Amino acid sequence: MNHEQPHWSKIQENSTVFGIKTLLFIYQVFGRAVFNVILFPVMAYYYVSNRSAREASKQYLSYIAPFLANEKPLSSFQHFLQFGDMLLDKLLVWMGKIDLSSIEFKTPSVVENISTSKRGALILVSHLGNIEVCNALRQRLAEVKLTILVNTEHAQKFNSLMSQLGSNTHAELVQVSELSPATAMMLSERIDNGELVVIAGDRTPEQAARVSNVSFLGHNAPLPQGAFILASLLKCPVYLLFCLKQQKKYEIHVELFSERLKFSRKTRQQELDIFVQKYAQRLEHYCIKAPLQWYNFFSFWHKSTDSTATKETKT
Questions:
Q1: Which GO CC annotations does the UniProt entry carry (predicted)?
Q2: pLDDT tens profile 63-99
């Protein structure tokens, strides 16, 4: 089977505005308990009908299993159910229904440093946990504005929907299919104004040519270089942010990744590889903490040679 698989942006995040409103309606009228009951057959259908997502989930779970000590085997269907639960939380965050009382900042000193410095920064996130919870930074950091870069065509629709539903978020979703000079200039202006720019580092754009093959969960995986190249262009501090749901509460981990990414011409590729690998190590570390919360239902390893790598990143 060597046929080309649909890209994740077309098979995973293809929810329509109608679908989003339906999810909210069920929750608002019937509550979370009924929502969870309805979620089961919906995710069962998605699980059965979406073979590529199912196989990607199984591959990921098989790769992470050796890193999980003394735990019961995890199933792909559990993975799908967690994804459905996250979708509701995603909407509730943007509606202001999940606030600081539901969130614990595990590294408050780092967050405080971002606040007091008054400097713009780039925040590297992942598709582990609920990345929309990073909107809580807006509540924690008062008037700081967030610009969240996404790879899907639904950013404009989602911004419009949030306005219709009365969301008061200071975050803006911006669709970026490629990092053009115009995009870099726009983001640089926002950084200069003290804003935070958020971008995921664990998904490869559909036509991306620039990747680093790194060790991730014991196997070679292609991670995109785009976020790291952008960081070097913006000449600003770079932070990592991971959001994990533990029981009914979210934990936010914020780490300083680099005061500034700067690459020399002669060793640019090698330096990029080092930083992308460093990011992969931290992503792996947090995936092990919440293995069912990495919602990348795409054959993440299929573009690499996928030869087994040394498990030197286990933490």
A1: plasma membrane
A2: 999 999 877 888 999 999 999 888 888 878 877 778 7
